[in-house]
Every structure is written in structure tokens, then in C-alpha cells.
Design brief:
By secondary structure, the protein is mostly helical. Among the domains are: 136 residues, 3-Layer(aba) Sandwich (Rossmann fold); 88 residues, Arc Repressor Mutant, subunit A; 110 residues. The protein has 31 helices and 9 strands. The protein has a 6-stranded mixed sheet with strand order 1-3-4-5-2-6, sandwiched between helices. The protein has a 3-stranded antiparallel sheet with strand order 7-9-8. It is elongated. The protein starts with 7 loop residues before the first strand and ends in a 16-residue tail after the last helix.
Length: 692
Amino acid sequence: MAEAGSGVRQAVPAELSSFIGRERELTALASLLATERLVTLTGPAGIGKTRLAVRTVRTLGDRDGLEVVWAELASLPERCWGGLRAELADRLAGPEVLLVLDGCEQLGESGAGLAAELLRLPGLRILATSQRRLRIAGEAVLAVPPLSVPTAPSVQPLPPSPSVLPGHGAPDPARRFPVADVAGYAAVRLFAERARGADPFFELTERNAGAVAALCRALDGIPGALELAAGRSHQYAPAQALRRLGSDPLGFLAGGAGRSTRGDAERSLRLASPAERLLWERLSVFAGSFDRAAVAEVCGFGALTPDTAVEALLRLAPGLLADAGQGRYRLPLSVRAYAARRLAHAPAGEAAKTARRHRERCRVVAERAARLWRAGAQREARALALRELPELRAAMNPLAAGGPGAALEIAVSLWFLWSACGMAAEGRRHVERALAVHPAPRPARALWLAAWLVAAFGESAGTDPLLVEAWTEAVHEGEDACLAYLAHLRGTIALWEGRYEDAAAEYREGLELLPAEPGFGPGQEALCAAHTLAVARTDPAAVPVEVPVEDGVPGGSPYASPGVPPGGPVDLWARSWVSYAHALVQRHEGRPARARTELLGALRTQFALDDTLGQAFSAELLAELEADQGRYTEAARLLGAVSRTRPHAAPAPRAQHTVRARLTPQAFRTAYAAGARTPLRDLLPDLPALPD
């Protein structure tokens, strides 16, 4: 007779809600159970191991008449462990029985011994759910992944407020998002259905689809966390839930499901070694994914050496960590919130030292990305910065360890991400937030970057106070490179205002002041490209567009930038602006086909780097070429395609006046709106690919 509370029963647990997603896992699990005697479902708490086991076993039982014994171990008191083996042996007397050991990790090492001994019974098959594999002979393991989530946009928004868990950005609440783009993902389907259960009036609409998608990403596609968030939809709209999640994850994740997830984590940690518990707490400083090297660098100190930290990571990975692919892991937000609370209450100095090591790693990563950019590996630099962006965002919190000075040092290293990779709005907020709390005197480099990012929006009037302060501090600090970049910035402002002679003069001054090895910022080729652009407006004949450079130079114009010595690293971003300048000259000289070729060469680099400002300028010049040929509808579509990415304070494109004059108002609005709904790349079918 089973002791009360033993959790062993013949009946498979009931499914209390609909089963969503997991089609691949259902097929894979059924196939494994048909051929293997021991199958273990692994994954972190809340990932859906039990639900997958229930659905699979019910399907097999209905179809094959399978006899099932279900042992629910998660709530099994420790006093019942000793009699569990004997009770199960009595229940498993049939010739063909499937035993489900649900929550096997709760037995610790005893779980593996129990399964190994029971497998001696002929005809018995075992399906185990466990946060850790059992590691016994003959075990087949199926890792249960998160539900599919909509991919994040390449330019993610800034988190709504600093918090212990940054890196989960909220969408612009005013922006509408096509429902069809997200509705097919399993995580979104789960959230929407559970939200309707809590609030019958909930619907997935263009107004909330972007927030739902971001919420699913922030919760890592883990069903348990998604069901918690959906169950509170009567309290919070998705955008409000996302903001609450970013600012107060512990408060948001409080409640029934939150306590369940926390309980799972606590039970798992009781069975973990001291090294594993310590590492788990330290891992809470990571806002995004991490690899072994990052763990060794940030968490390998004190009682944990770098090697023991990595060893503990590999033991923790199947249970408490989500697999982020390519050798990277992620601490699910629901688990991370609890780990962060434990770290905050750790012995004095533990949390602060972990945070300092994390921030120092971020500083090194940002500088490494900047060196890659200067060395010509610009796509690699962008990829590195984007991969580490959640960590870098956390490190740029001016109220965290290191203060505003450390935050600004990282932000300046990432100048290229803000200026050349379409993230000017986020960069501006990081820099301005840190400058606002930095004591005087404020660093010249950060003031230059702040002024440049303001100018990137076409708001030249707002740069004057920053320019004056930055120039004063650059002189005081002896920052020749900063003085050169300030001249470059003044030239850019003049270019925005149509003062092309002044722009060319400022760019020349910047080139004269710039040291041979500036150590930060755009570098010589970028300043040369800016000068070429200004000269293309003032004296097109002076732009040397007939001097070929080495064949096979990737991604830019087929012509060299004047003043740049050959043989150095190729600045793809600068070359794209040189191509744009050459296109201006070719159009001026009546060679539209060559101008188009130049612009397509510029655009392939601008797409590769996500340079939205460059794309806007190139597309608008392409629109002028289309209008020159009488293709006014095509020109209007191009203008519409970049209408959201061009600076809001910039003057209207030159082509717009021509196209409006040639099309009826209705025809212009229709073509412009069609372009606004179409990605720019889709309007350019003959765009060549950027070679590796």
C-alpha cells in the first residue's frame, strides 16, 4: 500500500489547458520511446517537461493501449524516498509498462540509482523528466527547448529604466506592429491563449503585438513564465507588463507561478554543490547570454577559480540554464530574478566584486569591438557588440559600479555602433544619461560623442553648448584627436545646413589635426570620405572618380578616398560614403547608370552594417535618379521606404518636390505609402551581395 503523498499512481495527470507548440518534440519523444528503454527529458524549470511527457504518454496510451505508471517526484517528501523502490516494483508487474519519473532531479544522485535498478525488470521502459540527465548506461536524452519566439529587431530599444535585470527593451508604445509577423510563433500563441483565459477581452492586435513579441523574448520563451505573465493580463497590458518586468522583475514574478518557479530553483539548489550554488548567484549579473570564457572571467574568483567556475557551469547547464546556441547559455529571467536576490544578500562585498568584474569585462569587450572596427573588420565588430549588447547596456548604467565615468568610457568605445550602425537614438540616451550625473569637468570624448549624436538627428542648434564645452576640455586634456573630431563635427553640421564650402574647410582642418593613430573614433578614412562628400557638392570636378584602386576591395566604391595611404585597413563604412559622393558627381556629369552602380555599392555595405542614415541618403539619391528618368512612382516608393529612418529634423529630400509636382496627390500618397510598407532592400532586386 502506498504511503499517503507518495505520488505514485496509475492515472496520467489531466491536461488542464490546451497544448501549444512542441510538434517536433512530440514526434522525437514518441520515436525515442519506441526504441529506447530510458529516455530523459531535460531542461530548466518551467520549460514544459511535464506537459510534454503528459501529452506524449496520453497520445501513446490512446493509440497503443500502453500501461502507464506515473510517479510524481517533485512533491515527494524525503521520508518517502526509501520505500519508493519497493512500491514501484509492486506496480510494475505487467509485461509492458511505461514508468514516468516526473521531477527526477529532486532525488539527487538517488534518482539515477533508482532508474538503474528498476531497468532490471524485463519489459519496463522509463520516461524521466529531470533538470539534469541521469548519466547512466543506455540513457537517451531529449533537451526541451524554449518555445519559438519572434526574432529581435537588429536595433533594439533602450530598456525603459535602469534595473538589476537590464537588457530587455520595451517597444515604442505608439508604434503599430503587424500581427501576422508574430502570431505564428508558439510563445506568442501560448501567451495570447492564456491571456484570453484571464481576460476574455484580450486580443492580439497591431497595437500590442510588438509588446507581446518583446515580452516573449524577455521571458526567454519559457512556458511557465509566459503563463504567469499572461495570467496577469487583467492587471497589465503587454507594454505595461514589459516595463514592470524591466524595472521590478522580482515584484512582477511574484505570485503563484512565480513562487512555483522559485520553488523549483530552491529544490534544485539544495541538491547542488556549494560551487554550483555560488556560481548560480554570480551568474545573475549577466543580462544576456554568456559563454565559458565570460563565466571564467567574471565569476572565477575567491572560492571559485576560473576552472572550477567552468566545471560548475557545465553541471548547471542542463537544469537551470537555457541553451542560447553556439556554446552560449542564458539564465532564464524568472530564475535570474531569484539568483539576483540571493547575490544581493551574499556576504559583504560578494555582489559588488562580481559587478565590478562584469563591468570590467564589458569595458574590454567594447574596446575589442572598437579595435576590430579600426582594423577593417567592421562586420565582426558590429556582430560582437550586438551579441554582447545586453551586458554592455547594463555596464552603461551610470549608477552602477564604476559610476558615470566607466559608463562613458564604454559608450565612447561603441561610437561606431551608435553612429554607423543605426543606433544613434540609443547611444544618445546612454551618453546623455551618464553625462547628466558626471561631475565637472566632463570628459571631452564623451562630449564630442554626445554632440555628434545630437547632430545625427539633424538638430544642429542643440550642439552649440556641447561643442563649446568639448573644445575647452579637449584643449585642457591635450586631446588632439578630439579636436580633429570636433572640426569634423562642425563640418557635418555645415553639411546639414547646406554650407558646403564651410563643411569642406572644417573637414580639411580635422584631417590636419588628426593624429596618425587616434586610438578612438572614426579614423582618417572616415574624415577623408566626409571631405570628399563636401567637395562633391562644391567642386565635382575636383573629386577623383577615375583613379581605380586594387580590384576586389569589398563593399565600397571602386575608387580610392583621396588622402588615404594605400595598404591600410579598408574602412567599409567610409568607402560607402565615398561611393555616395562619387554618385553625386556621376549624376552631375550626366552618367546615371554609373551613379546607380555607385549607390548600389554603397547600399550593400550600409545594409551589412545597418547604417540607416546612409541608407536614407543613398535611397533619396536613387529617387532623384529615378525622377530624372521620369519614373516618378518608383521614386516615391524609395522615398517612402526610408521615411521612418531618416532624421526627423532633416530638410525634405530634393526628389520629393519633383515627384510631388509630377504625380497627382493621390498617386504620390499611394506610392509613398506602398514604399513605407516595403523594406528598402525589397525595392532593389539588383543589389549585389557583400562578399565575405
